[in-house]
Structures
1.
Amino acid sequence: MSQSAAPLPGLAPVAGAGAPSPALAGLASLPSGLTPAFSPLYSQIKGLILQSLQGGEWKPGEAIPSEMELAGRYRVSQGTVRKAVDELAAGNLLVRRQGKGTFVATHVEHHVQYRFLKLIPDEGDSSTEGPAQREIIDCKRLRAASDVARALGLRAGDAVLQVRRVLSFAGRPTILEDLWLPGGPFKGLTAERLSLYHGTMYALFETEFGVRMVRATEKIRAVLPDPEQCSLLKTQPNTPLLSVERVAYTYNSAPMEIRRGLYLTDTHHYRNELN
Amino acid sequence: MSQSAAPLPGLAPVAGAGAPSPALAGLASLPSGLTPAFSPLYSQIKGLILQSLQGGEWKPGEAIPSEMELAGRYRVSQGTVRKAVDELAAGNLLVRRQGKGTFVATHVEHHVQYRFLKLIPDEGDSSTEGPAQREIIDCKRLRAASDVARALGLRAGDAVLQVRRVLSFAGRPTILEDLWLPGGPFKGLTAERLSLYHGTMYALFETEFGVRMVRATEKIRAVLPDPEQCSLLKTQPNTPLLSVERVAYTYNSAPMEIRRGLYLTDTHHYRNELN
DNA sequence: CAGTGGTCTAGACCACACT
DNA sequence: GTGTGGTCTAGACCACTGC
């Protein structure tokens, strides 16, 4: 069949039947001498699925159509859909379950409670220590400082929410988090709502605000706490802490959260796997 | 074709020709009521390739046989070999290069100089700051303490090498590393040899000792330096440092190195990507 | 049982690198 | 051109889930 470099049109052209069938018609010739930027079919399918994900056609936790169905919709073979779904599943956007279907990944009911938190107790596994106690210290609306605005893709002065909370393990304050959220998507978020919700923040963002975090980057440093941080973590001023600055992104790689965590690492450590 | 759960025998049974052909004969029935542990063909092929990698049949940097050739050798289709190679490539054990072949991954000529070092300068990319200056402080032979022995899979008292070095960026000491290596595989390693070698330690391990590190885990904490560490890093005693304890593994997931790094994070940070 | 994802094959053709 | 990996298809069958 033809494997053209042309992008998939909104509605796929008609496909042949018996023999290997062209799913992509020979689109209009390239506009100019630019690089053709060959993109394989499965990659274009992946893009289309991603669009449906972004557009909310399938919600977190729901099943997406079967591979056969998608193959029919996009006029490609099942194998091609499969490769697209494979990559999305590898990126934790979809979850395959044999015999049941393929589902949109979710932070809810994700038995691993904290998807992005890599702090674990030094001995034993984190399941032995039980869930963290969460205390919301503050949740206020304010105007974005220039650095926060830049990191969130906003303009300085735009409305942002700032949340501060403390996580404790076995009654011991261990994590102090400050986070900033764009005011628009998170309109209506209050300290009370945060306190009442049972589940992770990211699960709340997903179910209450339709914002699903997909990816994040972290910058880690060692720092000393200021007096206020000391009192919140009930620690000495000369206790070194891990500073973890996280930027979390939604589907379209748009930053939707900035979070700065201070981790006490005398009984826990940040675990990382390198490949 | 038949997709049995039987493991691939040393020499694959004869395959049919025209129709979908059985690569796995119906092996002897299961010994007892244990779980059959179904393993797909491509997964078994992956294991065989891994064995060849471990056994040194193909050395780092070399090309492995073409997919067609491997398909012939293992009596399976090219697609099955492909899936096996795909997974090994995803795990950074192999590197595919279109039009050229598939190569055994290597730490040498790996233009990204430090495969496992995630400390990067705060501004700009690491390419602008140039290579690190390396200074070997010490390299001595000793008997393994019980904790080191355990982590390396040795017995307490076995011979180990301990190396200490400092990495500087732009003349500024930034990283202090202590590392322990099993005495056997690294017999003959000296401070001089380390100093003279141009390239990363892992490249040296690979070319001079035939030990290729494939995977690693890190435990990260914030700590304060002791006086000796202070003087080596030319820093104040109250400067918080990142403590990074790494265990690096070879092919068979056997630990082959313990490394404890102290990172100065005033001008650099540890960068991590979460998916 | 039907429906879903998962595996395997065989064959065709494309993109790329080398010679 | 030849050989390599890369894409795509069509069809068959297996493994798992739930009705």
2.
Amino acid sequence: MKITGNICDIKIQEIEDPLMKISSREEMNMTIYDIAKLAGVSASTVSRVINNKAGIKESTRQKVKALLKEYNYTPDENARGLVNKNTKLIGIMLADIRSAHHTDLTYVVEKYLRQKGYCGIILNAGSETEEMEEAVRLLEKRRVDGMLVVGSVFQNERVKNAISEHFSKIPVVFANGEFDLPNVYSVLVDECGGVERCVDLLVQKQKGNIAFIGTLNSPSSQAKLKGFKRAMTRYGKSEESLVILDGQPSKESGYQMTQKLLEQYSEIQGVIYSEDLIAAGGMRAFWEAGVKIPDEMAIIGIDNTIYGELSCPQFTSLDNKMTDMASEAARILVDAVEGRKNPRKIMLFSDIIEREST
Amino acid sequence: MKITGNICDIKIQEIEDPLMKISSREEMNMTIYDIAKLAGVSASTVSRVINNKAGIKESTRQKVKALLKEYNYTPDENARGLVNKNTKLIGIMLADIRSAHHTDLTYVVEKYLRQKGYCGIILNAGSETEEMEEAVRLLEKRRVDGMLVVGSVFQNERVKNAISEHFSKIPVVFANGEFDLPNVYSVLVDECGGVERCVDLLVQKQKGNIAFIGTLNSPSSQAKLKGFKRAMTRYGKSEESLVILDGQPSKESGYQMTQKLLEQYSEIQGVIYSEDLIAAGGMRAFWEAGVKIPDEMAIIGIDNTIYGELSCPQFTSLDNKMTDMASEAARILVDAVEGRKNPRKIMLFSDIIEREST
DNA sequence: TTGTACGCGTTATCAG
DNA sequence: CTGATAACGCGTACAA
């Protein structure tokens, strides 16, 4: 990977730098002792100034402050944490930050945490329980003050055990899932009811023959599926007659499942996809097949991500309130870390964002 | 936000928990001293066992190890860092993790760092220089071992100064930008040349009247624009005659700019968008206007995100190698932190991923 | 092979 | 108002 030359006015140089090998030690970070010596006071006085404690002569305070600024001293948050018994670190565990709804959530959480003086450590813990346990262990080593678990895929015994082993004493907020543990809070969304309302919407649009396509393995997916079944039986369908296609959380899977649907289930008038991403894959299949949306087929996704808005035509999506969930979860977590009380479990209500596909 | 009831079989409870108010102190995290006492050895022996140092009687090693496991002791990484003078923390600064190409990059980086024993602290530093400086300060407080700066928006004097003030002694890798500072590495992509090749492709497809739509303010955008101008003049166009529409990095802006294009520049046969997201907005405008793609209009985006694949038709995109950049940047950073040498500046070469829009 | 003593950078307690 | 001193959890010379 060595390129030498001049490409588009950007000069490429190679400098095999001996990056400050010796010089680095000479100018370490300032400590309160250094400042104290400079100011002719004790370290504790400097500490007091830094933390704005009362009972310091104004003149010394100013003198110290000046030095602090001059040498632009920055306190070592880790050393601070050692004595304060907190790290101001929050662990954020999710399967994969690349899934659009988690990205949005993470953004909101990180912003909030930072505003409250905390730093988020985001861990892509994957979808295998072993990786998840590993992530929990890692966060324990970091002595995070609290932990946010995002996504119902984490709702399994292994993770629950890992948490009760390693994190029985710090607050944990589970977004979109729950553990029956004394220190775990839950923020949930009524995806079940939301999907019921999706069915209602389609029925109302004269699209009563509805298929459900998507993943079925996570608790969240199960809730969605339950909503689907419940609503469909409410409209007189037998559970055995329902068209439910099990797939992966990818656009490719959405595409394939939808092709299968078109081949095998000609009576279907509408589809509910368990995720927008899968729906986006489905849109492609309909587009290729020349199926008119919404006239010949109505579409609803879930998550209300940007995929629905980018699609042509834009598709309706069940907004499962990921950003609301993010701010609630972050708030509850910080509250818990700082000793403020909150309900152990709250639920948010999803909304259908109707667009051109219904 | 209090809900009581039973919704879709999910029982909602309200427990105004007094979350372990008293009990929490009783069972703090184990320290090496606790283990030492239990094992009847000194703390240093325990430390040696933990760090697999040689020169420990096998029997005591086993005894200690057993205790370690029994009480599932986990070393305090922060305390460890205090004496080791490292934190195994890496700061990752980007404008907004929600932009798809940054999300992918972040994922790759986080995975790599973790595999190498580091933890990433991701900061959404926004696009205002003040926020950026704030982020730098924050990372200094955390005493990160290294820092990754992602995105050419950070290439400004304020950030450069902040880095030389607060981070003159630790390695910094700048992905998609550069600072002339001794401790800063750069990983660049030849977006300029890439866009030139995009123009070449369109010309080759008999779509020589090309417009450029997108953001123009970041160094990265400037490089893209330069490539556009260079190639177009190469094909005999005068620079003044070029159609260049300045917009925002959003689908809405892409939509509006494209509408404007359709209204005002009927001779245009192809468009290069500075970002996939903007291109996606543009696709909508073409779709609404009934413009046939690629017959009546050829489209190329930049970033090679999922947006291009989801679009119907899928659009061609310049792959600016964000994930390669991510792994290179992460590798170089860890290398630098651990004292291994690397070129100070490397460049990756973009690739055109051709799809249905050209 | 193991223990003692010290230091990392900070805050808190207590004495002055 | 200010300064010693101890402590946080850990690693490491140095001594035994």
